[in-house]
Amino acid sequence: MATIRYTVPGLERGDAEQVVDILQHRLHALNDLQLTLKHVHWNVVGPNFIAVHEMLDPQVDAVRGFVDDVAERIATLGGSPNGTPGALVKDRTWDDYSIGRDQAIAHLGALDVVYTGVISDHRTQIEKVGALDPVTEDMLIAQAGELEQYQWFVRAHLENADGSLNTQGKAGEQGAADASR
């Protein structure tokens, strides 16, 4: 648990420490997401290359903004954000993105899985911070809304005429990538 010496008015130090710990994990997840999105941006090929390539840059920029917002909220609460690659790798609970140079549609299938994980975790943490700090809750809610929209952009490429996703029920990035091809 984070140890802080001060926090914002109206928030107990113990509650702030809990929120800082939650936010540190969100910081890692968002840093990983923005790096993954840029990796995909560089490694997409095929007929949908330019559409996917250009769709991803605004997502990268927005997620980088989320990273900054989370880090600054940690500092505002009296914590010390840790954005080093070593801390991210040590603390993460997920594997590295597993797709290299591949068809755009395969990357989109894998990104659907990535977004599902990040959004699900964001929603879980929203519930946890809601009772502790409504300001942090609001920040995470706004981020979740944008992340959900980005996933919709990805899923629009994966949707079948009947409304189903070709990644539905597939386990892991590789399974989703394979199902998308």
Describe this structure in words.
- Helix content is about 70%, strand content about 0%.
- The protein has helices at about 15-45, 50-75, 85-90, 105-130, 135-155, 170-180, and strands at about 45, 100-105.
- The longest helix has about 30 residues, at about 15-45.
- It has a two-stranded parallel ribbon.
- The protein has a single domain (about 15-180), classed as Ferritin (Up-down Bundle).
- The model has no long low-confidence stretch (mean pLDDT about 95).
- It contains 6 helices and 2 strands.
- By secondary structure, the chain is an all-alpha fold.
- α4 runs antiparallel to α5 (about 135-155).
- The relative contact order is 0.16.
- It is elongated, with a radius of gyration of 17 Å.
- This is Starvation-inducible DNA-binding protein.
- Keywords: DNA-binding.
- Belongs to the Dps family.
- InterPro entries: DPS_DNA-bd, DPS_DNA-bd_CS, Ferritin-like, Ferritin-like_SF, Ferritin_DPS_dom.
- GO terms for molecular function: DNA binding; ferric iron binding; oxidoreductase activity, acting on metal ions.
Spell out the blueprint of helices and strands:
Blueprint: H1 13-43, E1 44-45, H2 49-76, H3 85-91, E2 102-103, H4 104-130, H5 134-156, H6 172-180
Parallel strand pairs: 1-2
Helix pairs in contact: 1-2, 1-3, 1-4, 2-5, 4-5, 4-6
Protein name: Starvation-inducible DNA-binding protein
Pfam families: Ferritin
InterPro entries: DPS_DNA-bd (IPR002177), DPS_DNA-bd_CS (IPR023188), Ferritin-like (IPR012347), Ferritin-like_SF (IPR009078), Ferritin_DPS_dom (IPR008331)
